[in-house]
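User: Fold this; tokens only.

Assistant: Input:
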Amino acid sequence: MTPTRTGSTGRRPAAGRNTSGRTRRPSTGKNTRSSRSMRSQISQKPTRAKKAKLGRIDISFFFLVIALVTIGLIMVFSASYATSLYENDSGLTLVRKQTMFVIMGLVVMYLLSYIPYQLYFRLYKLVYLVCLALTALALLFEDESGRGARRWIRLGPLGTFQPSELMKFGLIIVFAALISINYRQMHTLKKGILPFFGYLIPVLGVIALQRHMSCIMLMVLICGAMMFIAGSKVYYLLALAPLGLLGLVVLQFMGFDYIGTRIDSWLDPFSDITNSTWQVVQSIYAIGSGGLFGVGLGNSTQKFLWVSEPQNDFIFAIVCEELGLIGALAIILLFILFVASGFSIAMRAPDKFSSMVVFGVVFQFGIQALLNIAVVSNAMPTTGISLPFFSAGGSATLMQLAQIGVVLNISRYCRPAVSRKKDPEKPDGKKEEQSSIKIISTRDL
């Protein structure tokens, strides 16, 4: 018979067990694994996140976007009717074009909501180079505006494309990737400042050659906000402010003389009503004419060739005139809810990269809306910053909805929102159930 391998039959103790039969845990294995995972936590999270179960999009964020897009399309129809009728003999020409871009943007948004966001992390350098190359390509096309600006790539019968809109998103992707890689060293100058400016300076140089100062300002604000949220030292960022002022002086001597003119017009908007301050003054008249409840949708008088391009940068003036203070505040409230909902997604994102992407996109929309409203109300000098979801424009509309699609994809991986309010019923119910079982146990009987 085969001898039984029990007791003292020569059986050796198993590895990791002492002679008393108790399991002996290695003293350094767990710590080694923990330290290794902590060191690779930041850079590896975007790769591991793809294993997470794909959930549903954030419904509240989605419906806020749909509400803003719908109201924006209605206001484009109202604001552009007079201009479209004057230029094209049809009041529906511009709104039809904008509707086409909105439909295309919604399709792109839907498709991008299913493309894993980790792909952008792996290809962030390629994304940056492609966006920068397209932005520089716009310099090869002749200016048709007569103002020296070369910002558009002509696509023949398809119209024009403004690559700086794509470059905004490219910078957000690059900065989010750098933050996720250098997250633990963002407080240092070497890792928290220099690598970011290595990517930012070439972009600003190309945009400056396009004579697109509003885009430069917007990019600097978005990137600075992302770096501040990520942990860059405030005094490092503030120390760069004199460099920005020096850059404005240099641009002034390089021929960007309209910068000083716009500042003078802002300080005294009624100094040259028939020329340089015409746009601002007509915007102020439109806002004042709206009163509390507005003159009614479609009843604006300032859109009849008084406010130049009322369907673009100054569309909010027409909103104030037709919907009044109540309607304007309602739209501002929608933007505030949009930003708050976006921040909620960013706080629940599965990793640093996705969180910073959402922060960057939300910062872009929030800062852009704030600056546009400030310009329309003459709270700051005039710049060519459009109002997201409202201002007409094919490139801007497509890119805005595409970025929303990326945010919706990230929201699929987010942790569910948990209320901070303590629910006393569930724990107490468990305790009562356990205590009731103990009362009827056989030991007590």
